[in-house]
Amino acid sequence: MNDYQIIIRPLITEKNTNWMMLNKYSFEVDRFATKPQIKRAIETIFNVNVMKVHTMNVRGKKRRRGREFGYTRDWKKAIVTLAEGDRIELFET
Hints:
Alpha-Beta Plaits; alpha+beta
């Protein structure tokens, strides 16, 4: 799997913005990516040192469209802790 296929998109929310002060960044990643693959992908794409990777599977929510019920898709979230002094400029505003 290519590094650019592992990282799908960054997650930018109010909670994740507060985590940036602690050098923690959140990404949506491929559902079948492992922690070492995520670490390697972040290090090569953003040129930073990754200390920890926490992952969680997010289940799809139940949604209604008229009379029909369905679910949003399941996805995987990764919270990456960077080494002291490293930053990802993509998130900085």
